Amino acid sequence: MQAKEPRAQFHRAPADERRLALIDACAATLARKGVHGTSVREICATAGVSPGLLRHYFSGIDELVADTYAAIGAQVQAALNDAVEAADPTPEARLIAYLTASFAPPIADADLLSTWLAFWSLTRTDAKIARLHDEIYAENRITLERLLDAHAPGSDHRLTAIALTALVDGLWLELSLGNAPFSPDEATVLAARWLAALLPRI
Amino acid sequence: MQAKEPRAQFHRAPADERRLALIDACAATLARKGVHGTSVREICATAGVSPGLLRHYFSGIDELVADTYAAIGAQVQAALNDAVEAADPTPEARLIAYLTASFAPPIADADLLSTWLAFWSLTRTDAKIARLHDEIYAENRITLERLLDAHAPGSDHRLTAIALTALVDGLWLELSLGNAPFSPDEATVLAARWLAALLPRI
DNA sequence: TTCCCTGTTATACGGTTGTATAACAAGAGA
DNA sequence: TCTCTTGTTATACAACCGTATAACAGGGAA
């Protein structure tokens, strides 16, 4: 005979804290199980919470994913900015630091890539995700253009920033996918070399 | 009252043809619906075939996806090679053609990107997909190194090929995601400029 | 201590998933 | 024309999906 299970104990958390826990759990699940394996139940299990609670804080799983994108995007941008601030205060060192931060943790990370791939793959079908993508990449590009301008003032760095972003993204992708035919150090060398080729000393 | 539906007419196809049709349908579904919306039923509906048939040709949906990756990868490599052969027969023109073919159809294509993202996202969890990825990228890199060597013989082009691949991948990604802040023509200009910076006249 | 609001859980629902299986019929070979 | 192989369909199944709802209980307010 089946004894009736007592209702599980639980803790009432402040709204902000619970929302953040769900966002973290969403990112972790996307990283570990991929888009395919990410469900309401899986996310809530990771967060240690009953499945129904998700809809108490979010209109649905789509909104949670979008909010997770925004949060992860901000984390990445913050990590990049931290790297810049930790570098020597010369324009060139700051620029190199910004470019090469993508080749070391926490940015070069298989989990982060898995999460990011999930966001990319939603860009086609979810307009909100597409808008977030545009915002995040625009901010990234503007930051890079500013650093380029500090290093070589006056000229137009739009295309240079676009190309450097593409290079870094491509190297980051291969590194994070695993089994890359080059090391993080080599990626750093490449970024520095290409920067020097494009921006000879003024 | 429900009249009993007559069994649908069907056509017996050669094995190769049916397998190919299912692979095409799988790619189309991944492109149109994303990983999330790609199911056995969806693929078979796209192929105009009953759901059970998939398992007559593949051990399951995972094997079909892997075979689709191999097929699409071969198509991409073929398109790149076609671009090279259509170019002027000078080493430089062939090299540029290889690099910039990624910025025009059929390679710069939102559908292809969606499919590719699905493959990438499976790399973590599916060892077969990971192995395919390594093979496809290794072949791509070797081809590029050969073209580089024809243009500037003698030196070691490993890192150059890696960097050019990363640059092209990054530009291709942004172009295919849509709303890129640059045009395909600008991407072509960038690839040519960076190539010139790395490989000054011999 | 008691009350009461509401964050949280448990459960239910219809729909979809991947796979298994048996019945059917297309179409080649005799 | 007939037979037989087998490619194909139809159906069934348990497990899972996202969401809706009502009952419960944590814990601050009084």
Estimate the helix proportion of chain A, in percent.
Answer: 55-70%
* Number of helices, where a helix is a run of at least 4 consecutive DSSP H or I residues of chain A: 9
> By helix and strand content of chain A, what is the structural category?
mainly alpha
Query: What is the count of β-strands of chain A?
Result: 0
Low-confidence stretches of chain A: none
Please state the overall shape of chain A, judged from the principal axes of the Cα atoms: elongated
Name the helix and strand elements of chain A from N-terminus to C-terminus, one letter apiece.
Answer: HHHHHHHHH
Largest interface: A-B, 46 and 46 residues
The Rg value of chain A, from CA coordinates, equals 20 Å
Biggest sheet descriptor of chain A: none
Strand content of chain A: under 5%
Mean pLDDT of chain A: 92
The end-to-end distance of chain A, rounded to whole angstroms, is: 83 Å
